[in-house]
Write a structure and sequence with these properties.
The protein is of the alpha/beta class and 329 residues long. The protein has helices at 3-26, 28-40, 60-71, 82-96, 119-133, 144-147, 154-160, 172-181, 273-294, 304-308, 314-321, and strands at 49-51, 75-79, 103-105, 139-143, 162-165, 185-186, 195-199, 202-205, 214-219, 222-229, 236-239, 242-245, 267-270, 325-328. Helix 1 crosses helix 3 (60-71).
């Protein structure tokens, strides 16, 4: 990185730190909200709501960052629309600076029938679920549509995950069978996350939560070596000690949601609750119109849209939110 670019990045990080410190020290209403949430999160069952009124929309990402820094743990911020979530995510990358790896954006699936999801977006979602299942503290941004999505039940997700290491007796055929059951697509050459390729005594795999694909070389049923490789050139590079493999396929038939992956003490922030409810109702109305248009008069196919992109009802969403300490803005 050029010296000028490095100095600029350090200066921006310093300014962000100063802004967050100013909020923490001088904003009395904010201090009161933080202390209230700190108390609420320790309560059993339904925990209660804390409101912070008259906040400027453009300043809210700084408040999200300050809250995350002050309370630690995991915070879920629910926003009305994908655009609002994307903007807040970009701002938080600035405000959190060196801690930007703790912020995640949960995008909603494309609910159009026949839509193909981007492998990178699915990978980001699965990586977030894996982090939450492992108890890693996260600041999660989600438009309301994403917060209502169904996911693989947490118990199933955790049971299906496994790790392979150099020297393991992973089983040549057994590993391929496990990858197939987890939803990975076999191909001639790995070109995207969620794929694996087999040739000779080698399995190339781009695991769901991995940053790079890995070349796994076998000697019989034992893993002899593992190395990262580049998709463009297919050339191997650095050695890899271990590789975590998570399910690639989603279990949409279950009714698990993001909330099943959150710890009990997680904070939930609602960015303009009235707007969130309005947007959610509008999405449901649009979904009903699509159902009636696509399946007019055909009751036998009426569940197809639900099976394609099921989601929690608004009542269920409200009940799940109520199990956490809540901040409304």
């Amino acid at each position: 990185m050029p010296a000028e670019t490095l100095e600029s990045a350090q200066s921006d990080s310093h300014l962000a730190e100063e802004l967050l410190a100013t909020i923490a020290q001088r904003h009395r209403a904010w201090q009161g909200a933080v202390e209230r949430l700190r108390s609420l999160r320790r309560l059993p069952g339904r925990k209660g709501v804390c409101a912070l009124h008259e906040t400027i929309a453009a300043a809210r990402p700084a408040l999200f960052a300050g809250l995350h820094r002050a309370l630690g743990g995991t915070t879920l911020v629910i926003l009305p629309t994908p655009d609002a979530a994307e903007r807040a995510f970009a701002d938080l990358l600035y405000y959190l600076g060196a801690h930007r790896d703790t912020v995640s954006l949960l995008r909603s699936r494309d609910e159009a029938l026949g839509a193909i999801e981007s492998p990178s977006e699915r990978s980001a979602r699965l990586a977030l679920l894996a982090d939450l299942a492992d108890g890693a503290p996260r600041l999660v941004l989600a438009p309301v549509a994403a917060a209502r999505q169904h996911f693989t039940p947490r118990a199933d997700f955790e049971a299906l995950r496994f790790v392979v290491r150099e020297g393991d007796d992973a089983g040549w055929e057994r590993l391929q069978e496990r990858l197939f059951r987890l939803g990975y697509a076999r191909c001639d050459v790995v070109s995207a996350v969620g794929e694996y390729a087999v040739r000779g005594g080698i399995i190339d795999l781009f695991a769901a939560t991995a940053e790079t694909p890995v070349r796994i070389e076998f000697f019989g049923d034992a893993i002899e070596s593992m190395r990262a490789f580049a998709i463009e050139s297919q050339r191997s590079s650095a050695a890899v000690d271990s590789l975590a493999i998570a399910p690639w396929a989603d279990r949409l038939d279950a009714e698990a949601t993001l909330f099943d992956y959150l710890p009990d003490e997680a904070i939930v922030v609602l960015d303009e609750p009235a707007t969130i409810a309005s947007v959610a109702n509008a999405l449901d109305e649009e979904r009903d119109r699509e159902r009636h248009t696509l399946f007019a008069g055909d009751r036998s196919d009426d569940t197809l849209l639900e099976e394609t992109a099921p989601r929690a009802s608004l009542d269920d969403l409200g009940a799940m939110i109520a199990q956490h300490a809540v901040l409304t803005l």
